[in-house]
Specification:
- The protein is an all-alpha fold and 507 residues long.
- It folds into 2 domains: 13-289, Growth Hormone, Chain: A, CATH 1.20.1250; 300-494, MFS general substrate transporter like domains (Growth Hormone, Chain: A), CATH 1.20.1250.
- The chain has helices at residues 2-9, 14-45, 50-57, 59-77, 87-117, 123-127, 131-139, 147-153, 156-176, 178-209, 215-240, 249-269, 272-285, 302-334, 341-369, 371-390, 399-427, 434-462, 467-484.
- Helix 11 (215-240) runs antiparallel to helix 12 (249-269) and helix 11 packs antiparallel against helix 15.
- The radius of gyration is 24 Å and the shape is globular.
Length: 507
């Protein structure tokens, strides 16, 4: 009973969690820029088709499968680091990522200049790469056939024909100057390794400085910080990448500067060793030290092994579906739906807003319904949100409002799943095995994210672009099946009297 009474007075240190969250802020800011810009660069600048750039887009997740546990393990062992075992990796990884991002931006700029000089915005040049464009002009009896005049018409067929010609031109130029593409990918690999080097240590820092009973609350707050970073990224590419003919140098350069500014804030405010000591003192004061910690070599009962496998399969299937859409959103929305790049940013904002709005309601749902039921609700919402997108075209009435609404709902479903599946996995562990079980979670989630862009790209190329939504809904639906059979890992959080108590740092 003593433990329960003490636990009632233990509160999350709001300020400390926010300061640590700046590392997550930078990570999510980068990944939002990456997920938006990279498909467009590989497609529009280098002429790669959906499955080709999908394969490259999967590299970050493929590398993450191996690199995240590797660097996480290195940070565990870096106990003698003066600045802190996690901070050491956050510091050097952020610097390396910023430098790599700028180098990659330079090669994108070189390719951009080449295609612009070759006539990327010249009608006569584009016709030579797509004869359909000339046929459309003749059919519509258009007298003024300059690039600008054709784009101003807002004709979806002509816009699509121009885009096809531009991609073909970019591909031809890339083949003639393949070294630019090679160096761009080398810089990209450097960037991905740099991000991986501090992503896992940054994830590990939150439990390092947070008492175990408060880690789910801290995770929700950290998730919110990550969402804020994503919104900053969206603002950046609405400013610096709002037009098809706008190069991405300044988007990448400013993102690199943002990473360095966030690093500076982190280094000036986060004292890792002090924060870890404060956590230890709080656990001792409130008698919440994990007294049931089990050694890592203790075997998990068979029934719990089955539940663990089902949870991990749910994670795998979920990311196979949801990330397929996320990785191809920018090219699909600017292609078949004929949205502007700026409007794609708006869709991403709504998707992120759906996630941000969902954080508190999802926390309350999980406390009342349990994690499993909350995950099921999220899976159903996301699947139902994507299905209508399959039937939408550029000519669908209200498509500019209906399509973003679907992504708003999908964002809500995403939070229901992502916020609860990781705690379900770690719930099956004890204090000494949390890192190992977290590794299991990322191995399955990253594996899905590594392969799904390419698989989804094959669907889009060989069936139809809109088949991406059926693809996503099928995998998300399969996640519902595996979730239904989970029998462990569903501990319900302690019920709070007041909503604000989830984040209160006062007694």
């Amino acid at each position: 009973m003593k433990k329960e009474r003490a636990n009632d007075t233990l509160r999350l240190d709001f300020k400390r969690t926010i300061l640590v969250g700046f590392a997550f802020f930078g990570i999510m800011c980068f990944w939002e820029v990456y997920d938006y810009a990279m498909p467009l660069i590989l497609n529009r600048r280098f002429g790669l088709n959906e499955w080709q750039y999908g394969l490259i887009m999967g590299l970050d997740n493929l590398l993450a499968i191996f690199l995240l546990p590797f660097f996480g393990g290195l940070s565990d062992k870096s106990v003698k680091a003066k600045m802190g075992r996690r901070t050491k990796f956050i510091f050097w990884g952020s610097i390396a990522a910023a430098v790599s991002l700028i180098i990659m931006a330079l090669f994108e700029f070189f390719q951009f200049q080449r295609i612009m000089d070759a006539g990327y915005n010249n009608y006569e040049t584009l016709v030579s790469y797509n004869s359909e464009l000339q046929d459309l002009v003749n059919q519509l009896a258009i007298s003024d056939v300059s690039y600008d005049s054709l784009m101003s018409l807002g004709n979806t067929d002509i816009n699509a024909a121009i885009k096809t010609a531009q991609i073909a031109m970019a591909g031809a130029i890339a083949k003639d100057n393949v070294w630019i593409l090679v160096m761009f990918i080398v810089a990209l690999l450097m960037l991905l390794v740099s991000m991986a080097s501090y992503r896992s240590p940054a994830v590990s820092l939150m439990p390092d400085i947070t008492p175990k009973p408060l880690r789910s609350q801290a995770n929700a707050l950290i998730t919110f910080m990550g969402g804020a970073g994503g919104l900053v990224a969206i603002v950046l590419y609405k400013i610096f990448a709002n037009k098809p003919t706008q190069n991405y140098f300044w988007l990448f350069f400013v993102t690199a500067i943002v990473l360095l500014i966030l690093l500076l804030i982190y280094m000036l405010t986060v004292k890792e060793k002090k924060f870890v000591q404060l956590r230890a003192e709080e656990e001792e004061k409130y008698n919440v030290v994990d007294e049931e910690e089990v050694e890592g070599n203790e075997k998990l009962p068979k029934a719990k092994v089955v539940s663990l496998f089902l949870i991990l399969m749910t994670v795998f299937l979920w990311f196979m579906g949801y990330n397929a859409v996320k990785s191809h959103l920018s090219t699909y929305a600017t292609g078949p739906l004929a949205f502007t790049q700026g409007y794609v940013g708006t869709i991403s904002i709504l998707n992120g807003a759906g996630g941000a709005i969902a954080l508190l309601p999802v926390s309350l749902m999980a406390s009342k319904l349990g994690r499993k039921k909350t995950v099921i609700i999220g899976v159903i919402i996301a699947a139902l949100a994507f299905i209508p997108c399959f039937f939408m075209t550029a000519k669908t009435p209200g498509v500019k409002y209906l399509f973003p609404l679907c992504f708003l709902l999908a964002g809500f479903g995403m939070v229901c799943v992502n916020v609860n599946t990781l705690p379900m996995v770690t719930e099956l562990s004890k204090g000494s095995t949390v890192g190992k079980y977290t590794g299991y979670y990322y191995a399955f989630s990253m594996s899905a994210q590594a392969i799904t862009p390419a698989f989804a790209g094959i669907f889009m190329t060989n069936i139809s672009p809109n088949s991406i939504f059926i693809y996503a809904s099928i995998f998300i639906g399969l996640a519902l099946v595996t979730t239904a059979f989970i029998k462990h890992g569903d501990n319900k959080p302690e019920k709070k009297k007041k909503i604000l108590e989830y984040f209160s740092d006062e007694d």
